[in-house]
Amino acid sequence: MTKRRQIRFTIIRSLVAICIALLVATLLIFISAGGDSFQEKLQATGEALKQMLIGPLFRMSKKKGTSFELKRLADILAAMIPTIFTGLSVCIMFSANQFNLGAEGGIMLGAFASAMAAIYLPLPAGLHPVVAVLIGGTAVAIVMLLPALLKTKLNVSEMVCSLMLNYIIMYVIKFLMNTYLADKSRGQIMSFPFRETANIPPIVNNTVFSGAKLTWGFVIAIFAVILCGLFMYRSRWGYAIRMIGINQDFAKYSGMKVGSVIVLSQILGGFLAGAGGGIEMLGRYTNFSWSALPGYGWTGITIAILAGNNPYMVPFAAFFMAYLSKGCDLMATYAKVPAQLIDIIQGVIFLFFAAEQFLSGYRQRLVVKSAEEEIAARAKLQKEG
User: What is the count of structural domains for the chain?
Assistant: First the structure.
């Protein structure tokens, strides 16, 4: 199949999966919508869908009509920051055929390590957030050595190991906060305030961007996307990661150091998740108060699947998920429909992307068409020669 047709197939497959997920969501909205008659439930469903699909960017009012709001767009872009990093993290690890699920615990550990650096390291402004984020990313990269080495040395499932590691990280952080690091003068478990020099400022210092917490972290996230794309498609290490993901045995017999590349993919994935947690923490909060896994890692898995493990597609998938999440929140507020629909939509998308036979017939037709065109082109060249 030609590269253009492969891209077209990936896009169509993604859109069909999303449409099916939205159809399932519509059915569930209709079932849970208020109203006694069919017409009332249909009207309530329409209002809920309007909030979910249009509300994230437009304010709808009966008096003033529908109007675009920059603040809502800024909220969506700000919500993309941590999920871009977890999406990139999962992309790199999944590209090496390593089903490491540690991005969820990784982003929490990165946020915690960066928060501690923001509290206890006296550094000048500008340098302080950079050092804190690097500490967060490095801490997670070191922890990700555990599932990576267990996989390469003892063939332990990285999926099970990383999944359990998420909860180990969470409970260790809770223990440290409850026992040693909490500010006892507060009414809830939280750290001491961050130093002002550690804060990541908003891109533009006005009420819209400051209120949305749209910080320079978004610019760093886009820069990370470009770097990851260049690494995956323009470096020999990225090529090795992709080749191992396609066929590990072939990569091994062709001379690639499979174990080293697997370890590298999981270390890089861990660093990205940790850096994302640090940027999210220092850009949005003034204290560390997370008492549970934040959920960004699970969303990152869906984003990586939507992006087809292509780093360049991660921002678009992250925008879609942030848009949908915002829409579900508005739907729950104004249409009284459960916001948990976002989890159902993610689950349906994951189901269809994980199904290898989904649209396999259409893919086969594209392969046959590409082969026929290639044979015809060769026959034409031979005839002319």
Answer: 2
**73-110 pLDDT, tens digit each:** 999 999 999 999 999 999 999 999 888 999 999 999 99
The helices-and-strands tally (H runs, E runs) of the chain is 16, 2
Distance CA 341, CA 308 (A): 23
Give DSSP secondary structure letters for 172-210.
HHHHHIIIIIS-TTSSSS--PPPPGGGPPPBSS-SHHHH
In this structure, how many other beta carbons lie within 10 angstroms of the beta carbon of residue 383? 7
Q: Find all residues with CB under 8 Å of 194, minimum gap 6, and list them.
A: 115, 118, 119, 282, 285, 286, 287
Determine contact, residues 353/306, Cβ cutoff 8 Å: yes
Same domain, 62 and 126: no
Q: Are 106 and 43 in a shared domain?
A: no
DSSP string, 24-36: HHHHHHHHHS--S
- The answer, yes or no, to whether residue 207 has pLDDT greater than 70, is yes
- pTM of the model as a whole: 0.89
